[in-house]
Specification:
Blueprint lengths: L2 H13 L4 E5 L2 H4 L18 H4 L2 H6 L1 H16 L5 H12 L3 E5 L5 H4 L5 E3 L2 E8 L5 E3 L17 E5 L10 H11 L2 E5 L11 H7 L3 E6 L11 E4 L2 H9 L8
Parallel strand pairs: 1-2, 1-7, 2-3, 7-8, 8-9
Antiparallel strand pairs: 4-5, 4-6
Helix pairs in contact: 1-10, 6-10, 8-9
The structure holds adenosine-5-diphosphoribose.
Amino acid sequence: MTMQADLEMVKALLDGSRKVVVLTGAGVSAESGVPTFRGREGLWKTYRPEDLARPDAFEAHPELVWEFYNWRRKLVAECEPNPAHVALAELERALPNFLLITQNVDGLHARAGSRKLMEMHGSLWQVKCTVCTHAREDFGELEDLPECPVCGHLLRPGVVWFGEPLIPGVLKLAIAQVSDADVFLSIGTSSLVQPAASFYQLAKDHGAVTVEINLDPTPNTGFMDFALHGKAGEILPELVTGLKDRAT
Ligand code: APR
């Protein structure tokens, strides 16, 4: 089947859906200029993000890890949401029952207007104390080793690192939502990181139709009902154009 025919079928699916759950990854922000994790431009200095985004790296070299996050915060602050983010915010507004679950920590979905949004890996714009309960949203410039204003200990980025559990309650909620979907879309993620990479299976097991939109094939591609290959910023606007507005 041609890509255009698949696209029309997915559009019809969305039009007739009861509940749509979308999972996004770094590919959705690529066209905004945010480097993906595993792409060619993903390296920072000589480091792979996976080697820095971890608790043991932070413990051993907090200044290096903060330097990396301050670089990311600055880079993302200069980026704008792209047509993929905008289309997903439009999809939310057009549908009666919708949830966007993102692995991205860049905040671009919220900036594009998404509100039914779960940032399952936290946010670059959250900081929290490594010792006490202090946590805050912070869009400003941070020092190399920022200190907690309450207890003076080291602050850390409010993101979920490799080897860390998800924020309490988030996984349970995500599982419930994904299980309840009748249409599940996986967009711009390499599907290599769990548990998000298994969400499509959960959705499928509960009867959902599954759709992948990604530049490259992933380990999940062959198991999807529809796989649309290309740029999220080109495919998503096409998908949402002309959708029936069924929001109540
Ligand atoms: N449109 C659609 N897909 C794209 C685009 C684009 N313009 N550009 C790149 N992609 C695809 C790539 O082909 C790749 O499959 O997006 C995917 C990005 O994969 P990763 O870099 O692995 O990012 P992601 O899947 O979000 O990583 C998951 O791993 O490092 C951790 O916690 C971090 O949330 C992150 C998680």
